[in-house]
Amino acid sequence: MHRVAFQITKVTKTCTLGFHTSATNAAISRLNLPAMSPTMTEGTIHKWKLKEGDSFAAGDILLELETDKAQIDVEAPEDGILAKIILPDGGKGSVNSLIALLAEEGDDISSVEIPAEEGSSSEPAAEEKKEAAAPAEPATAPATQSPGGQSISHHDLDTSQLKKPLSPAVLSLVLKYGIKDLGSIQASGNGGRILKGDVLAHLNLIKPKPAPKPTLSIAPPRDQIVFAKSAKKDEKKKVEAVPTFMTKEIKIDHLERNLNVMEFIAKAAKYAVQDVTNKKPSIIGDGKQFRVFNLAEPSYDFITDSYQASKPYVLSIGQERKSKVQEVDDLIGYLAGEVTEKKNKVERLVQIRLDGDKVMRDEKAKKFLHRMDHYIRNPNELQ
Predict the structure, then answer these.
(1) Helix 363-377 with 261-277: angle, nearest 10 deg
(2) pLDDT band, residue 88 (cuts 50/70/90)
(3) Are 265 and 380 in contact (CB under 8 A)?
(4) pLDDT of 92-145, one tens digit each?
(5) Which residues fall within 8 angstroms of residue 140, CB to CB, at 6 or more apart?
(6) Facing residues of 284 across strands?
(7) Which residues contact 291 (CB under 8 A, 6 or more apart)?
(8) Which of 42, 160, 194, 277 stands the most exposed, by the fewest C-beta atoms within 10 Å?
(9) Within 10 A of 349 (CB to CB), how many other CB atoms are there?
């Protein structure tokens, strides 16, 4: 949000402006709607930050102003009191129209009234007659404007020779002193931009001085750069990578020798998926490796603002292997320290492996392997 502070016009003639002040009220300030660009014609009061009678300090935000391009915070240029709000919240007004009256500390604001609009009295009509009767001005105007010029509207500006847009401060000065021909101001800014000092020099308020030459880089010269000394690099702690797979070794001694183990385990996997997800199982594979769908949790897609199906887990079945183990005939006697006979036994084992990005943190994946183990140990439950 942009912020702007503009100059407030001081009004000391109370009777001609249509409002009254007490003896202690030395001056009333008019708060006009500021013009933020040469093309701005009107604005809307989004919200007043203060109420009538509230005091404020220089730099405080008085109101939020909306234009067709931006929303701007209007700051107070000096201390004062918000005497009366002319244009309320949501009201739309033209540039330089009256939106509020400001007073100073100690002023009596109980009798402040809204001033009459220009052109409502007979005095402006009389002034127009005098101007019509006066002789026409010479065609050649002086090169500079006097500080006492009358304020104008931005519609009166001649921007045909303007190379760069005017800043709010420059536009406020141009409108205040009635400088219509912007081409008569000698610009010293980069690219022909008119600066605030150029307007003041045009009005003979200050001596003109050239602007500093623009620099092509904001970096200081290399000999002025102080390079920081590199600190000792902390030894990077080795972060153990989280495994992306789970394995389980299952005994298949109880299965028949002529049974196709791969097909049997695939069937057990389908039953296990159905138990965990309560959905129709979907397993696709070639006999040794299968893709298990509907088991991984769906992932959230920020672009489409919806949940998408995650990649399926991959179930791999290892080769059947045999392992020799020793069995004790009398386990109770062995635990009691008695010498018992040990027999070697050959076990048939098969390893199953489940791969996936989030498989180690997925409780469903653990339950899936547990149910597979159950069905393999209890083949009679597979119909």
Answers:
(1) 130
(2) very high
(3) no
(4) 999 888 888 888 877 777 777 665 554 444 444 445 544 544 444 444 444 444
(5) none
(6) 291
(7) 283, 284, 285, 312, 313, 314, 315
(8) 160
(9) 15
